[in-house]
Amino acid sequence: MDIYLIKLILAHLIGDFFLQPDSWVKDKERKKLKSGKLYLHVAVHIVLIFVFFLSFNVWKIAFSIGVLHFIIDACKALFQTKKNARILFFVDQILHFSSIVLIWHLFYKGNLDISFLNNTKTWIVIAGALFLSMPTSIVMRVIIAKWIPENQPNSPQSLQNAGKYIGILERVLIFLFVLTNHFEAVGFLLAAKSIFRFGDLKEAHDIKLTEYVLIGTLLSFGIAIAIAMLTLQYIS
């Protein structure tokens, strides 16, 4: 990757995540365009670009990114609500990184190498990872549906859909571990999950729940390893 693009990205990361206190964020959300912290935040980003490049000759780049950063943050402040705050956070960051790449391309004639998208192996890996997300969750739900234990009236409540997302994350991690030939990490992940679930199962005193968790865990790990090995076979 081009060193100029790396410097611009680092400047953004430090400015947005290290040098922007929560008080500034809340001030921008409350006062919108009247917030002095909004303009101070943009100024920090401009200064960081000068610091990373150690030159004032990049003033056009710094000013351009500063203007785009202000427009993006201003739009976010104007349209953000409690309901869309999480979505706008990711949209905001995507727009910031896109603007950085655009400025880098315009001033340094840089081009991102996306030739890997034309590689069959790339799409095989993507297909394997996607299959291990929602499709596998649905397949597992169908397989173990008849063993789902009934909820007890005094049983503790869990986060909504937490189990589904935990399963997706563990399968994707296993997928990456196997593709990178780190099978020991798969064992570590299984051991870590066993430790965290041991307390719950011990307190539950319910053999059906224990068996259900074991079936789900082993099925999830088994499918992930099988898909990873199959993917590895095709891309090798």
UniProtKB/TrEMBL annotation:
InterPro entries hit by this protein: Phage_phiKZ_Orf197
Keywords: Membrane, Transmembrane, Transmembrane helix
Transmembrane segment boundaries: 38-55, 61-79, 86-107, 122-144, 172-192, 212-235
Entry keyword annotation includes Cell wall biogenesis/degradation: no
Any Pfam family hit: DUF3307
Entry protein name: DUF3307 domain-containing protein
